[in-house]
Fold this protein.
Amino acid sequence: MTDLRLTIHGGHEVEARIREVLAREGFRIVEPPRDEAGSGPTLVVEPHHAHGHPHLPREYARRIEELERTVLELRNLDVAKSQFLTNVSHELRTPLTAIVTYGEILRDGMLGEITPRQREAIESMIGSCRQLLSMIEEILTYARTNAQAISIQPSDFDVDDVVRTVHDMNASLIERKSLSFDLEMAPGLPRAHADRDKVAHVLGNLIGNAIDFTPDGGRVHVVARRSGADPRWIEVVVEDTGIGIDPVHHELIFQEFAQVDASRARIHHGTGLGLAIARQFVRLHGGRIWVESELGGGSRFYFTLPSVEVNGSSHAESAAA
Amino acid sequence: MSDTRPLVLVVEDSDAIRTAFTILLEESGYAVAAAPTGADAVRLAGERIPDLVLLDLGLPDISGLDVARRIKGDPATRGIPVVALTGRDDESDRQALLAAGCSDFWLKPVDTQALIRSLPGYIAKTP
């Protein structure tokens, strides 16, 4: 027995953990062929002291046993994670299903004649819902397989356009809460060169949170300007007069599944994935996302995006950061 | 005042979706009985003997799959066609549903026009 083969199911996190354990336990990993489509990598490992170690057989057996235990634990964790994602997916789909179904009932004139313009509006509503559903699929897939599965499709667009779209989607909520919403564009700001849908997703998340966590009558202020660190990059700020976030949580809120506390989660519902996804989307562009806030003092979320002036050099900002 | 419209039993725990299906079916010429739980579904199927059951799978008490099995396991309700509405799309679910006696299954959110067009086929299929 000179080597041990492990086929790893459960994605990159599990693989990383197993590699860590193997290294600690004194195994050497002989890099594997990444084969067998979809089945996960097979690691071929051997102990460092494969030759001439007196206690080798006993040592070997003990380590393999430990290894197998760890693999089993990780697999169980992975099952629990997948189960959680399935549940969240169900929770998200239910209200969307209701919206789509009511939309179709209205569109088909079951509750009374509609005008062509009303039909157009309803069609657009149904289309948006179906789009959201497919986005949920994408998010879930993404969360399961880590960032590698998602690619960006850049185009050139104006940031204020996207902000307006996000505002319009939230217009009724903004009105209901009597919030003031304003957008401040720096003069001469170049167009963004980025994945528009992903940027819309990030802005939707930040502006949605700002609306959610700001009491009635408050203010949501969006600024787009050149980044101070590298003026070829665009910096977007979403500022609110809401409840604020304790600085000890500023890193936590960007982690997957994190909610600052249970009561906040109860009041504001949410999967805890929103900011983690926003961060992944921003990072896919080579940008940064961060927050400045204090409890009771409102929040300012910042993120950076490449403009058309960046010319595909996505490392400038990360280097400057 | 006897109702000659075919009766559809809608089994769905979400109030919003149950109401939407009730409107959809009533406006399409069906009578509707509605059940928010699996237990209600089994009871109503026995009491009302509907012409069709539209069954959501994610119920709070009994799984939709078990509801289908109970309806199909009772000689009094065995002949009622059951169509499942599911949020999940994996193959094992489909197999399990067909094995439980479901006529078909639709992924939510369904295309309501297509569903309404298919209903007479399900009802006619069962003797």
About this structure: Chain A touches chain B through 20 residues (CB under 8 Å). The CA atoms of residues 229 and 320 of chain A lie 6 Å apart. The two ends of chain A are 49 Å apart (CA to CA). Chain A has nine helices and ten strands.
